[in-house]
Amino acid sequence: MTITMGLAGAGRRAVRVHAPALSTAPDIRFAGIWALSPGPARALAGRYGVPAFGEFGYLLENCDAVAFAVPPAAQPDLAATAVRRGRSVLLERPMAGDLAGAEELAKTVREKNVVSQMGLAWRYAAEVRRFLHTELKRVRPVSGRGRVLSDDHLDDDLAATWRIERGVLRDHGVDLLDLLEATLGPIADVQAHGNQHGWIGLMLDHLGGHYSEASMSATVPRDIFRADVEIFGPGGAAALDCIDVVGPAAYRTMYAEFAAAVEQQTAPALDVEHGLHLQRVIESAETGVVFGA
User: Fold this and answer.
1) Are the C-beta atoms of residues 44 and 10 closer than 8 Å to each other?
2) Largest CA distance in the chain
C-alpha cells in the first residue's frame, strides 16, 4: 500500500529535511506542498515536481497524511484541522508553542483516533537504536548525563526566527530530554537554572528512582559542537555521541515507520501523547529558568 502524503511548510526544515525524505521514502507518494508563503511553496514544489496548493484545505483533499514543517505556534491549529479531516499527522518537535496548544491537539487526535508521530530525529537513527538495544541491557543504568552545545543560534542561516526567540530548550533540548527518557525512564520532575538564550542546566528525576543531568546551549563560541549522552549503572558505563547520528537514513526510517503505522492503523511509541509529555517537561523547565522556580 502506498500512502499519499503532503507537506505543510516550505522553510529551512522543509527544504533540508522533509521534502528530500518525502521524495525518496518507500511506500509514500509525495502529494504536494502548502505553505503560508506561496512563493517558497511553489519553488520547493517545482524542485520535486509536485503541486503547490494555494490553500491548506486543497492539500488535505489530495493526501492521506500530512508532514508538518511549520513553527510550533502554528502547528496545533493546522494539525488539528488535518486530524478533523481524518488525516494522519507527522509532527515536528516541540509539538506546540505552549502547553495549551499541545493539550488541545492531543485531545483532537484522541477524539478522531488518527495516527500521529513525532519527528524526534535522534530516535530513528541506527546508532541510537543500537545503543538503546545493547548498552541499556549491559549497563542497567540508574543515572546519566547529557549535553547539546552549538553555535546554531548565532547564525540566522542555521536557525529559524522562532528557534532563536524561544531558545535552545525548545529546539535541541527536546531531542536530548527524549533520549534521556529512553535511557532512564519517564521524567517525573525537573529543576532548571540558567538563561534560555544562553546556558541551561537541568536536574531530572526519572520514575523508578533514576536521575540525570542535562546541559544545553546554542550560543557557545563558534565551531564548538557537542551532543552526547552517558549512562552509569551496575554494569558499568556507556556513552553515545549524537553529533553525526542524524542524516538522510534516519529520516527515511522515520517516514517508513510512519507510513507503516498509517497503513496498519497502529499507534507509534513516539506519538502525540509522548509529544505532549515532552511539552509538559519543557514548559516546567522553562518556568524554572524564567522565574527561578
Assistant:
1) yes
2) 58
Q: How many CB atoms lie within 10 A of CB 96?
A: 26
Helix, strand, or coil here: 279? helix
Name the phi and psi angles at 70, rounded to 5.
-125, 160
Q: CA-based angle 70:280:126, to the nearest 5?
A: 65
**Amino acid sitting at position 291:** F
Q: Collapsing DSSP states into helix, strand and coil, what is residue 224?
A: coil
Q: Which residue blocks in the chain are alpha helix, DSSP H? A: 12-13, 19-24, 38-48, 56-61, 75-84, 99-112, 126-130, 136-139, 161-166, 172-184, 248-264, 272-291
Q: Which of 71, 67, 271, 32 is nearest to 165 (CA)?
A: 71
User: Residue 94 — φ and ψ, nearest 5°?
Assistant: -70, 160
The CA–CA distances, whole Å, from 96 to 113, 152, 171, 276 equal 19, 21, 12, 9
pLDDT tens string, the chain, 293 residues long: the values are 789 999 999 998 999 999 999 999 888 999 999 999 999 999 999 999 999 999 999 999 999 999 999 999 999 999 999 999 999 999 999 999 999 999 999 999 999 999 999 999 999 999 999 999 999 999 999 999 999 998 888 866 655 677 767 778 888 899 999 999 999 999 999 999 998 888 999 999 999 999 999 999 988 888 889 999 999 999 999 999 999 899 999 999 999 999 999 999 999 999 999 999 999 999 999 988 876 65
What is the model's pTM? 0.93
